[in-house]
Every structure is written in structure tokens, then in C-alpha cells.
Amino acid sequence: TNRHRESRGRFEAALALATSIHDTQATCQALTCLATILHEGGETHRSEALYQKALQLFRRVGDRQGESLVLGSLGTIQKHHGCSAQARARYDEALTLARSTGDRHGEGMWLGNLGNLLVQQGRLTEAQDTFLAALAVQREIGDRRNEALWLGNLGVLRWSQGRTQEARALHLAALVIQRETGDQRAQSMLLGNLGDICMELGDLAKARCHLEDAVSLAEVTGSRLMTGAFLGSLAELEAREGGLRRAHDVIHEAEQLLRPLGYREEIGRLLCRRGHIALAHGHFDGARVAIIEALGLARAMDAQPDALINREIARLQVAMANANRTRHSA
After folding, report:
1. What is the distance between the alpha carbons of residues 95 and 160, in angstroms, rounded to a whole number?
2. Cα separation, 114 vs 91, whole angstroms
3. Distance (Å, rounded) from C-alpha 58 to C-alpha 56?
């Protein structure tokens, strides 16, 4: 998007200037900001390389808060790639540094991100304790934006536990706060999740409204990850409503955005959505292939049974079993 390109150009110019005048602190800041923009835009490998450069410079000048920020950001990249052990190590390092420097904002941030990793792994009891600890920190320091982030992610945890109405309520509460803070990226994530929750509850009209708003905001903020993920949800919704040709086109668009990123969880969940579309077409072999590929990704992530990716696989397996029974009884 134009906004994303403008942000990227601004930080590239800032990096060039800081480097030319040999201002190490400014170079660190510019590297970190540019790496974040690139990560959001899907340029993961370049983003990781810039974070590594920033990490070396922060350590050289003894900036432990900056070091914590970069370590946690590297953890998030590892989490997206499904490398759980490496992500956990980075988050633990970031959290230790934040606590040692008295950085309460950083402590709350990395506790919350660690909670996200634990949900991805399906370690829900530990994730709940971690989210509640993160919420306590954010409320103590009055950080409303990050309080809303962890409220929403606690909603994802409840969704993983099958407590769908609680999940919806937590997402709505978080959305109210994020609309006050103006964080469009967080709003997109919450709206997309609400779309999936409403689809699960059978409220397809609300699901469409939430998902279309989520995709629009994701495009505005330049997030390939969220744009692709919520297009995938829209594709499944189209199939449920009988728009099979449109579903095929939208799932293809989602795959073009997500597959180059290499994010195992999102690709696995997208495969499951493709499986639902295949079933809607009566293509059982396509659904079976989707299940096999998604199971392989879940194993590579060391995802436990309660992980979201395994929940999506189980949902597809149930749909396939029901479709098989209908076919054989016809």
C-alpha cells in the first residue's frame, strides 16, 4: 500500500542518514523500525537480517532495552516460522533483559508474546497464566493499547478451549479499546478473529461484515499476513454461501500472499480452508490432501492437540466425515 511504502521509504532514508553521520544510536533505531516495517510487509528474511545488525549495535553500545526489543522481535519471526524452541529462547532472553532494566512495558510485551507462542503450541494452561501476568503489567502501567492486545489474545485462548461466546466477548471488549487508541493493525486482527468466531457460531452475515473490514484494514496497514489469513476466511465463507467460483478465486489470492512468507501455522490453517472448499465442490481427494499437508506442518511446529492448527484440522476431519456419511446414505 502507499502508506506502507511511505513508511518504508522514510525509515530507509533515516537509516542512510544515520549511517552517513556515524550515529550508532540513531542507526540502531532506524534499523529496528525498518525491520519492523519489512516484517509486517512480508519481507521476513531481510527483516531478520536487519534485526541481527541492530542487535550487534545495541550490544556494542550497551543498550539493554534496545537489545531486549530486538531479541523479542526475532522471537516473533521464529514463532511465525513455527520454530517454537528458538522463539521461546528469544522471548525468554528478551523478558530477562526487560526485567533486569526495570522496563515494565517490555516485560508486559514479551510476556504477552510468550503467551501467543504457548497458544500456538496448544499449551493453554501455561498460556493463560502468561496472558494474565501480561495484563496485570499493562494495567499497572496504564498501557491501554497493549492491554487490549492481550485481552484479544486471551480471547484466542478461550476460542482454542472451545469457549466461543467468551472469546467473542473478549474480542469485542478489546476492539472498543483499540478503536480508542487508533491501532488499525490490532483492529484488523480482532475483526478477522471475530469473523471466524461468527462463522463458527453460524452468523454468516456478521462474519462477512467483520472479515471484509479486517481485510480492508490489513491492506491499509500493509500486512500481507493478515490480508492473506482473512482472505482465506472469506474464501471459506463464500463456499458456505454457495459461491464456489468466488471461493476458489479468493483462496488462490490468499495463498499467493501467505505461501511466500513461510508461516507454518497460517499456511496450515489456510490448507484446511482449501479443504472445506474442496468438500463443497465434492472433491474428497482434495480435502484429504489438505489434511495430510496440514498435519505435516502441525508436526513440524510441535503443536499439541489444543493448538489452533490442530483444531482447524479436526474441524475439517469432522466436515469430511459428515460429507462422507451424506454421500453414502444418498
Report:
1. 25
2. 6
3. 6
DSSP tag of 259: G
How many percent of the chain have pLDDT more than 90? Answer: 81
Name, in order, each residue with C-beta under 8 angstroms of 290's C-beta and a sequence gap of 6 or more: 271, 272, 274, 275, 278, 316
Which pLDDT tens digit goes with each residue over 165-179? 999 999 999 999 999
Provide the residue type at 164 as one letter: T
- Nearest 5°: phi and psi at 21? -100, 10
* Those residues with Cβ within 8 angstroms of residue 235's Cβ, 6 or more apart along the chain or in another chain: 247, 248, 250, 251, 254, 273, 274, 277
- Global model pTM greater than 0.85: yes
Question: Residue 12's CB: how many other CB atoms inside 10 A?
Answer: 15
Q: For the segment 268-318, what is each residue's pLDDT rounded down to a tens digit?
A: 999 999 999 999 999 999 999 999 999 999 999 889 898 889 999 999 999
Name the phi and psi angles at 22, rounded to 5: 60, 40
Q: How far apart are CA 116 and CA 52, in angstroms?
A: 22
- Count Cα atoms within 13 angstroms, Cβ side, for 323: 19
CA dist., res. 252 & res. 124, Å (int) = 32
Q: How far is CA 264 from the centre of its chain?
A: 11
Alpha-carbon distance of 270 to 294, in angstroms, equals: 9
